[in-house]
Amino acid sequence: MGEQAWTDVSDGELPEALIRFRLSPADARYGGNLVAGSTSMAIFGDLETEIALREYGDEGLCVAYHLVEFLAPLRPGDYVEARARIITRGRTSRRIRAVIYRVLEAGPDGRGKALEQPVLAARAEATIVSGRRGGE
Fold it and tell me: H-helix or E-strand containing 107?
């Protein structure tokens, strides 16, 4: 297989994915009531799957992460919004950029605190391919 030609697809016409939910007490893994980075990775995986379903009609496969950064802590009770979009398209693959923002945080007493600006908590870039074999 030769080198793939990549095309810029940032025109907003291609699939995007959005997830918004509250982190639960079961997501806490570390001292200080912190949510593990693996939770963010699972969120990225869900975004990739949604885009793959829209693009390929199947769940697709993540073949590489090119960048993963954890930029701000997440805690149980926080509401997060995660988004992903295709940034380049190859013949059989898609490169995706994904972000997770904390949009509302929970205090120690469980009360929510609205944020003036969403906080970028994590970001990633990944490549996905169709999960179909041999053009099924």
Answer: none
